[in-house]
Amino acid sequence: MELSEIQALLRLIEDPDPVVQEHIETVFRQAGKSAIPLLEQYWLQNPDPVVQRRIEELLELIQLDIVGQALYEWRMDPAQPLFPALLLVAHLRYPALDFAKYTNAFRRLVHTTWLVLPSSSDPFEKLLTLNRQLFVQERFQPEHIRPYQSRYFFVNEVLDTRRGNSFSLGVLYYLVAAELDLEVSLIAIGNRYLVRYFDGTVHFYIDPYHRGIFWLPDQLKEILRKANLSDNLAHYRPLSPPYIILRNIEHLEAAYAREGATEKKALYVALRERIAIQREGGGTLSGA
């Protein structure tokens, strides 16, 4: 589009005609990322709160298209790592998110843990070392006051604040352990997330939300029985990376609903609907 055409469309943002607004939305969403600086500039130049809110809505829709497409492409390739997808989920909320900054922060966590990892093949020793690195050296802590606040479901916020809930700390612990070639998976028991270690012989569970406490299978079964939950550990299957991302989005939907942030919730509902589509050879929302 010519600059003059774009400027003409920007001036029409104030037009209340829904047909005009639909046309503006279509054009700017087709323009995609290239339209963002123009919309941001017009937002700065126009103090009208109604116009500014409309521009914000257009920016959110463009961001939704960008993130939705990126996550869909990520999901189509099972070999893609999980951490970049977590950043994409956060990117919808934080459009200026510095991917390199948080990727480097994550890589540093892995590297500093690797440097002190014992040469012993004992998985208990290695995971105890990971506990010390995350919860003593790096000072990650469980958030007990507002664990279901939306911010604690974003990986960038967890890396910045060193605080997280059962989901975010569980995912971070699982990712670091997996990068260290430990035989781990992430499981969910309701809204509690545990890291499972199983190498064919040794089998135990770790709760990152409780600073990496270890449970043997019989101990976990006893806890489940007391909570009136099934103690058949086979029921709690490892979560695949796409399902972890879908759970991340669902948790954000619920968090924004509790916070009364209906517009932010709607964005994440739309994002989930875009990526929870059955694809050839892959799963759906219920079996990703």
Account of the protein in words:
The protein is of the alpha+beta class and 288 residues long. The protein has two domains: 3-76, no CATH class; 83-241, C8orf32 fold, CATH 3.10.620. It contains twelve helices and six strands. It has helices spanning 3-11, 18-31, 36-45, 49-76, 83-93, 99-116, 123-137, 155-161, 166-179, 217-226, 241-259, 262-275, and strands at residues 141-142, 163-164, 184-189, 192-198, 203-207, 213-215. The strands form two sheets. It has a four-stranded antiparallel sheet. Helix 4 packs parallel to helix 12 (262-275). The chain is elongated and about 70 Å long. It starts with a helix and ends in a 13-residue tail after the last helix.
**Oligomerization category of the chains in this entry:** single chain
Question: If classified by CATH, what would the architecture of the largest domain be?
Answer: Roll
Count the domains: 2
Computed Rg:
22 Å
Question: Strands of the largest sheet, in order across it?
Answer: 3-4-5-6
The secondary structure category is alpha+beta
The shape, in one word, is: elongated
Strand content: 5-15%
Treating each run of at least 4 consecutive H or I residues as one helix, how many helices? 12
CATH class of the largest domain: Alpha Beta
Main beta-sheet strand count, sense and barrel state: 4 strands, antiparallel
Gap from first CA to last CA: 40 Å
Listing every helix as H and every strand as E from the N terminus to the C terminus, the arrangement reads: HHHHHHHEHEHEEEEHHH
DSSP summary, beta strand count:
6
Overall pLDDT score: 90
